[in-house]
Amino acid sequence: MSAAAPGGAGPASAVARPRRDRLSPTLPLGIVVLFIIPLILLPIAAIFYFAFVTGPGAFIEALSSEAALHSLRLSFAVALVTAVINAFLGTLTAYVLAKYRFPGKEALSIVVNLPVAIPTVVVGTSLLLLWGPIGLLGDALARLGLPTPMFHPVGIVLAHIFVTYPYMLGSVKPVLDELEISYEEAAYTMGASRLQTFRYVIFPALRGGLFAGTLLTFAHSLGEFGATVMVSGNLRLKTQTAPLYIFSRFEQGDLASTNAVAAVLALASFAIFFVLIRVTGAGSGSRGTEIR
Fold first, then answer.
1. If you average pLDDT over residues 134-163, what whole number do you get?
2. Which of 46, 97, 240, 273 is the most buried (most CB within 10 A)?
3. What is the pTM for the complete model shown?
4. 260 near 59, Cβ under 8 Å?
């Protein structure tokens, strides 16, 4: 028989205990803050400093010009239309990918996520080559005497739908993937149709992801530049969105107008961001840990 360990300690006591002392976060936290200040906080602060450095009166005057107001109205309108359309298209695509099995499903999943990998300027160029006056479809429309969507607000909406399409898909599909199939099966057992099951079982579970995806789509559309500058023509009082207006006024040295419109877009983005945090935070608090 083996001798007992000194002090009556059994074999379990010989196992090394994990260290409970924790490293101080001072150094890594200091490095993170050191990078955040010049990369994020100071640029944002600079926008509002130069927007209000000459006083609220100059800020309001800069925003009161016809071109500035038109660019803001157009940007918010395009973002709203884009968010509504992608809310439907993205949810439908997510539902098909999550609930159906069919040949080419993986290929379709890759295709619908391609806009994330394609530079936005390339997106604008591709739309011009398709729908422009000399494009594959645009030329056919011109021959029929029909207008092309390029250099028109419709073309801007097309570009924004292309660019923001994956945002709604990425917000809704994970929720569908995690939804228990037993709820749907129970609804079918009770005689519910597929449409009724979606309305009363699936849609209530999707509301958080749908709302988050809509906000992300709206926010990204509001600040989209690369594809917009290609398909819009940057026509003043016609197709000039707020980001294009900022770029044009900056090139002309009008810093007051540049900073005023930039501050408005920044404030709108902050509002969307904080609403998104509240919604996702409330959802995770009520449902427990959620993967997203």
1. 91
2. 240
3. 0.81
4. yes
d(CA 9, CA 11): 7
3-state DSSP of the chain: CCCCCHHHCCHHHHCCCCCCCCCCCHHHHHHHHHHHHHHHHHHHHHHHHHHHCCCHHHHHHHHCCHHHHHHHHHHHHHHHHHHHHHHHHHHHHHHHHHHCCCCCHHHHHHHHCHHHHCCHHHHHHHHHHHHCCCCCCHHHHHHCCCCCCCCCHHHHHHHHHHHHHHHHHHHHHHHHHHCCHHHHHHHHHCCCCHHHHHHHHHHHHHHHHHHHHHHHHHHHHHCCCHHHHHHHCCCCCCCCCHHHHHHHHHHCCCHHHHHHHHHHHHHHHHHHHHHHHHHHHHHHHHHCCCCC
Question: Structural domains in the chain?
Answer: 62-286 (1.10.3720.10)
